[in-house]
Amino acid sequence: MTTEPVPTAEGACPLCGVAVAVEARRCPACGWSLAGVDGRPGPFSVRALWWTGAGFLAVYLITLAIVALTH
Ligand SMILES: [Zn+2]
Q1: Ligand 1 midpoint to CA 1 (Å)
Q2: How many whole angstroms separate alpha carbon 13 and alpha carbon 19?
Q3: What separation in Å is there between the alpha carbon of 12 and the centre of ligand 1?
């Protein structure tokens, strides 16, 4: 027995089991986020992860350039 919510049948909230609309992003009964459930887009898309990585890389390169220019 686990307390971690697991994906259930399509259209059902994994937390409380209430039937929810397929296009709903949150359970109307308990407010549980349904991101990543039943084919819905997850909270973190691959594109968002790439942009986050690109942002860190840009900050790193800018810092590297500043350090290189000031030495
Ligand atoms: Zn629910």
Answers
A1: 19
A2: 6
A3: 8
pLDDT band per the 50, 70, 90 thresholds, residue 8 = very low
| Residue 34 CA to ligand 1 centre (angstroms) | 9
What's the CA gap between 53 and 50, in Å, rounded? 5
8 vs 31, which has greater pLDDT?
31
* Domain boundary assignment for the chain: 1-40, 44-71
Distance 47 CA to ligand 1 centre (A): 28
Residues whose CB is less than 8 angstroms from the CB of residue 4 and which lie 6 or more positions away in sequence, other chains included: none
User: Is the model's pLDDT at 36 over the cut of 80?
Assistant: no
